[in-house]
């Protein structure tokens, strides 16, 4: 009985120490993050844009789709803060509604690419050999093409629509995540805790989910915050080239594309959505840099 009690006590102590280490780690990350003013500013800006996109019908001062040819190219004023476009539509209202499309295109394809990359990266790194060779060869083929060019090929093949943008950005974005997760898996699969799990007969998929994946979360968080602005810029580029969101959608990239013809006569039509893209991309990059500094022990001051 004493031996059993000792074993139970030791096991409880180990579990308690593990929980303490995890708690201390995330507390340390949070403390480091809140000291980074740029990261906090980026997080606040992202939160504001998310709230604006959610409550767009309540915030937008005008109907973003209402055409009024009598109010074409009105300059910014008290009634129209950012002026009107070639169809007399309020630019500010279209930017507010456009935040919905830009954030959706930034978040949803990034989640899909992260999921695909995590699954393929862990499988390639854990099993190795032919599985690793096959998956990494496919990822090298994807990475060998310029991402925007490959996305354009997919959009021209499938047609221009919001759903096809999700598909195109998901196809071109998973390879980088897969390589990052594979490298982490290769460094973790020979650790003592993984070898112990193998020795007692734990199934491979359980090892990958419960032992390897949690140790990749810090890197994946940083990667996710950097994937989102990339997807937003890709959507803006596709819309600018005419293969992204289609009228009458108020996509920021489409607004820039439509306003470029009137850049000298009515610059606010193109510049305003361009500034919105710049602010959101910078905010996500600042937050990603802050997370990287907080999670990487080698970058901490």
UniProtKB/TrEMBL annotation:
**Regions crossing the membrane:** 39-60, 101-126, 133-156, 162-181, 262-287
The entry's protein name is Glutathione ABC transporter permease GsiD
Read off the lineage from the record. Bacteria, Bacillati, Bacillota, Bacilli, Bacillales
A Gene Ontology biological process term: transmembrane transport
* Family as reported in the entry's similarity comment: Belongs to the binding-protein-dependent transport system permease family.
User: One GO cellular component from the entry?
Assistant: plasma membrane
SUPFAM superfamilies tied to this protein? MetI-like (SSF161098)
**Sorted alphabetically, which keywords does the UniProt record give?**
Cell membrane, Membrane, Transmembrane, Transmembrane helix, Transport
So which domain of life are we looking at? Bacteria
PROSITE patterns, alphabetized: ABC_TM1
Query: What is the membrane topology noted in the UniProt record heading this document?
Result: Multi-pass membrane protein
Q: Where primarily located? A: membrane
């Amino acid at each position: 009985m004493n031996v059993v009690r000792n074993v139970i006590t030791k096991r409880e102590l180990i579990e308690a120490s593990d929980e303490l280490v995890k708690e201390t780690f995330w507390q340390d990350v949070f403390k480091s993050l809140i000291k980074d003013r740029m990261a906090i500013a980026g997080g606040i800006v992202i939160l504001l844009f998310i709230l604006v996109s959610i409550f767009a019908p309540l915030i937008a001062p005008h109907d973003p789709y209402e055409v009024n040819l009598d109010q074409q190219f009105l300059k910014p004023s008290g009634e129209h803060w950012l002026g009107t476009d070639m169809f007399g539509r309020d630019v500010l209202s279209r930017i507010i509604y456009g935040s919905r499309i830009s954030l959706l295109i930034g978040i949803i394809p990034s989640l899909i690419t992260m999921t695909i990359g995590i699954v393929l990266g862990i499988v390639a790194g854990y099993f190795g050999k032919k599985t690793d060779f096959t998956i990494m060869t496919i990822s090298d083929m994807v990475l060998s093409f310029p991402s925007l060019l490959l996305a354009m090929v997919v959009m021209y093949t499938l047609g221009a629509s919001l759903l096809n943008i999700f598909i195109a950005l998901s196809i071109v974005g998973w390879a980088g995540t897969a390589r990052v997760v594979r490298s982490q898996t290769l460094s973790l699969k020979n650790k003592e805790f993984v070898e112990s799990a193998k020795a007692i007969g734990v199934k491979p998929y359980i090892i990958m989910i419960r032992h390897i994946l949690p140790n990749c979360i810090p890197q994946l968080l940083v990667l996710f915050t950097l994937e989102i602005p990339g997807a937003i810029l890709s959507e803006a580029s596709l819309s600018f080239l005419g293969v992204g969101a289609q009228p009458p959608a108020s996509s920021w990239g489409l607004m820039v594309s439509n306003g470029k013809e009137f850049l000298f006569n009515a610059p606010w039509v193109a510049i305003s959505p361009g500034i919105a893209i710049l602010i959101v991309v910078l905010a996500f990059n600042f937050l990603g840099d802050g997370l990287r500094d907080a999670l990487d022990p080698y970058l901490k001051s």
